[in-house]
Write a structure and sequence with these properties.
Elements (H helix, E strand, L loop, with lengths): L1 H11 L4 H16 L1 E5 L2 E6 L1 H13 L4 H13 L4 H26 L13 H26 L16 H16 L1 H12 L2 H12 L7 H19 L18 H11 L2 H17 L11 H39 L1 E2 L4 E2 L1 H10 L3 E7 L2 H9 L1 H15 L8 E4 L4 E7 L4 H13 L2 E3 L2 E3 L4 E7 L6 H18 L3 E2 L8 H21 L3 E9 L5 E9 L5 E2 L1 H10 L3 H18 L9 E5 L1 H4 L4 H12 L6 E6 L11 H10 L2 E7 L5 H7 L4 E4 L1 H6 L4 H16 L3 E4 L5 H10 L3 E3 L7 E2 L17
Parallel strand pairs: 10-11, 13-15, 15-16, 16-17, 17-18, 18-19, 19-20
Antiparallel strand pairs: 1-2, 3-4, 5-7, 5-10, 6-7, 8-9, 12-13, 12-20, 12-21, 13-14
Subcellular location: Cell membrane
Keywords: Cell membrane, Membrane, Transmembrane, Transmembrane helix
Main location: membrane
Length: 748
């Protein structure tokens, strides 16, 4: 531990590693720099010492200057006389102080951010890749022109505006643009060895998620092919790829890497490729290639390097921004919990999951009293309370309203669900000093991917969780059904598709049955029949439940009403004065402007309002304070008759009868069938008839099957009788002649 602490202090101290590194790396980078012999002396094609010094500043900041001064002094005082060596070292330090001061003043605290940060790239390009190299070349050339340094052994000639100076300037610019990230990686890794692992992690993270192994292999093979042609194959007239002509072909290949593989991979690889290509330039450059051609090649590589690195930085940032946006889309910003999109993704990526649904209906009432903040705080706190019971890959997901859902890994999690249920019972929130402990319903089921109908499944779980509130136990969705969950949902979706197709292609069948009036004023009740894809009848309770669940009530009512009005209109000569009763969903009854829409339909088909009777299920919406009361009043004012259907089946029927204003009352057939065997049913029928007569309402009795029932109901004052005794149910169009076919399409 003591040795490790001392080593860390040595790496961080300006008088430790920062003092030694420049003295070691200065001669090493000079040897690695690419030089070219010209008639008037050596010239650099890539000058690495300046890139290394800038990397030292990016790692150590101002603490690097003692080491830089020491390294420059050791290097130049061993090669030049004291006067020229001091002038060169002072020039170095003045250039670095000027450029680094401007850079630090502009970027402030973010000066040491790793390479690839797009927001810092303009500042770094100006100060570190342009200002410092330009000032360095300008001042060093000034020293050479002024004769302050010996020209022998120097890379700077006496003539400032020469090809020699241009090549030196381009070499310094190219090194500061491309080689600083490599030097930064070396220096930073020596200071903090863990940075190398972090760089490898970031390098992998910057790869596009869509990159496949095949793409990587193809790209590598193409790169290897180009390098082989440039470095191994002898140049000739018949093989242009083995000459400098093949060098521009690196451009599309590296742009491919910039767009797909990220900034770190592209920048580091391109720097290494430049070093290899420059060191082995004799392999592909023609022997007659002169300094002018080298200057053009160097300028092209400099411009290409800038474009390549900018493209890599932009695409890397775009991928990072897109990843953050996708991550934000998986989280609810108000509750700070993952949402349904995250749940769907987790279910798709898991081999098997158990969904545990939590419903808190009282939370809706409490939030109305204490505000929405209570709901937000309660759900967030409840999720945090459940987190200790979850494994790393599991989570609590936010649902709209007052529900939450948990995803557990694998199936058969009954023991864990029992622990979670026990933990739920212990949870109590204190709000303004008051304990908030609403009831929580829990249901669960196991699912396997792919979960194609997640929303419908959550709806089933919600219903079971509400049942859990009354039963007091955790409900298993799969034990409550004779069929698996996914099969039931698929069947429901298939039925929904059948209903929608039937609405588009007139696939429903209208069934009619005669209603016997005791005074001879008969009418016909009409309802819908549906067949599935196998030509099997679908029970009305099944497809009515789907219609209500998916909000197709008005579409179905509108289709049925238009079919009935079309039938009356087309057969008014054969069936004059026919009256037809049809159902009207309660949700359709609450539709704004319902009476006006029905009035427009009656006018389109030239049908009188008295020919329609609407059956409406008893509901709290039919009371004076409900949404359907006004619609009933408007329909009656229009001239249509309204009947309360299945009276006695729901709750509070007598209270509803007291408040509702309707024309007819249709008794539930269960009372009629049992009135001879159950005196209570007989008393209900008798009392209902008395109350209906007081309200001046006519009474319809359903399921009348015997003559005895007919006689008794007539004595009780029933006005209309329906059942097999008066006629079997049959298709509506059978009321007219058999050879008269029904219409295929309705007029617009």
């Amino acid at each position: 531990m003591i040795i490790t602490a001392r080593l860390n202090r040595f790496r961080q101290s300006p008088w430790g590693l920062a003092l030694i590194l420049p003295a070691i790396l200065m001669p090493l980078t000079t040897q690695l720099s690419v030089r070219l012999w010209m008639l008037d002396g050596y010239v650099y094609l890539i000058y690495l010492p300046l890139a290394m010094i800038i990397a030292m500043l990016l790692v150590y900041d101002w603490k690097a200057f003692p080491g830089i001064a020491t390294g420059l002094s050791l290097y130049y005082f061993n090669r030049y006389a004291p006067g020229p060596a001091a002038a060169i070292a002072a020039t170095w330090l003045l250039v670095l102080l000027s450029g680094w001061s401007g850079y630090r003043l502009q970027v402030k605290r973010r000066w040491g951010v790793s390479y690839g940060e797009l927001r810092l790239m303009p500042n770094r390009l100006f100060w570190l890749a342009f200002f410092i190299p330009s000032l360095f070349v300008f001042m060093m050339q000034g020293l050479a022109t002024a004769g302050l340094v010996p020209l022998k052994g120097s890379i700077f000639p006496w003539e400032p505006f020469s090809l020699h100076t241009l090549l030196n300037f381009q070499s310094v610019l190219l090194a500061c643009v491309t080689m600083v990230p490599v030097c930064y990686l070396v220096v930073r890794s020596l200071r903090s060895p863990g940075y190398l692992r972090l760089t490898i992690f970031r390098l992998r993270q910057q790869f596009s998620p869509e990159v496949s192994k095949t793409e990587g292999v193809v790209w590598t093979l193409l790169l290897a092919f180009l390098l082989t042609m440039l470095l191994q194959v002898a140049p000739g007239r018949q093989n242009l790829l083995a000459t400098e002509y093949g060098l521009p072909l690196m451009l599309p290949l590296m742009l491919w890497a910039a767009m797909r593989f990220g900034y770190l991979f592209t920048g580091l690889l391109w720097a290494l490729l430049l070093m290899v290509l420059y060191q082995l330039r004799d392999r592909f450059l023609h022997p007659d290639t002169g300094p002018y051609q080298l200057a053009v090649i160097s300028a092209n590589l400099l411009v290409f390097s800038l474009s390549l690195l900018l493209m890599a930085a932009i695409t890397t940032r775009q991928r990072r921004t897109l990843a953050r946006t996708k991550a934000a889309a998986l989280n609810d910003p108000v509750m700070n919990l993952p949402n349904l999109r995250a749940l769907s993704l987790a279910l798709a990526n898991s081999p098997g999951s158990t969904l545990c649904f939590l419903t808190i209906p009282d939370l809706d009432r409490l939030s109305r009293i204490y505000g929405l903040r209570l709901r937000i705080h309660y759900k967030s706190s409840l999720a945090a309370h459940l987190k200790p019971e979850l494994q790393p890959e599991e989570d609590v997901y936010q649902l709209p309203g007052f529900d939450l859902v948990m995803r557990l890994e694998g199936s058969g999690q009954l023991a864990r669900i029992e622990k979670i249920t026990a933990r739920l019972k212990d949870y109590c929130l204190s709000w303004d000093g008051l304990p908030v402990h609403p009831g929580i319903g829990v249901s669960y089921c196991s699912v396997l991917p792919p979960v194609n109908h997640l929303y419908e499944l959550l709806g089933e779980l919600s219903g079971m969780a509400e049942l859990s509130l009354t039963s007091g136990i955790t409900e298993n969705l799969q034990q409550k059904m004779t069929q698996p969950v996914q099969y039931r949902i698929s069947k429901k979706i298939a039925l929904l598709n059948t209903i929608q197709q039937a609405l588009k292609s007139n696939g429903f069948q209208l069934i009619a049955q005669r209603i016997c009036g005791v005074r001879g004023d008969d009418y016909h009740a009409v309802w819908l029949a549906l067949e599935n894809d196998h030509r099997e009848p679908v029970p009305a309770t099944e497809f009515y439940a789907v219609i209500n669940e998916f909000g197709l009530t008005w579409e179905l009512d509108c289709w049925r009403l238009r079919q009935i009005l079309s039938f009356i209109n087309q057969h008014r000569t054969r069936l004059p004065g026919i009256r037809i009763a049809t159902e009207l969903f309660t949700l359709s009854l609450c539709r704004p402007g319902l009476a006006k829409e029905i009035q427009a339909m009656l006018q389109d088909y030239c049908v009188e309002p008295w020919q329609l009777i609407f059956y409406v299920e008893e509901s709290p919406m039919l009371t004076p304070h409900g949404g359907g009361y006004r619609a009933i009043d408007q329909l009656r004012y229009l001239g249509c008759r309204v009947a309360i259907s299945n009276f006695g089946h729901g709750y509070g029927s007598y209270a509803l009868l007291k408040q509702i204003e309707a024309d007819m009352l249709r008794l539930n057939g269960e009372f009629v069938r049992n009135m001879f065997n159950n005196s209570l049913d007989y008393q209900i029928i008798e009392s209902t008839c008395i109350m209906a007569r007081l309200k001046k309402m006519q009474i319809v009795a359903a399921d009348v099957e015997t003559q005895e029932a007919d006689t008794l109901l007539r004595k009780l004052g029933v006005d209309y009788l329906q059942g097999a005794l008066y006629g079997e149910a049959k298709p509506l169009y059978s009321l007219v002649e058999k050879d008269e076919a029904p219409p295929q399409r309705l007029p617009d």
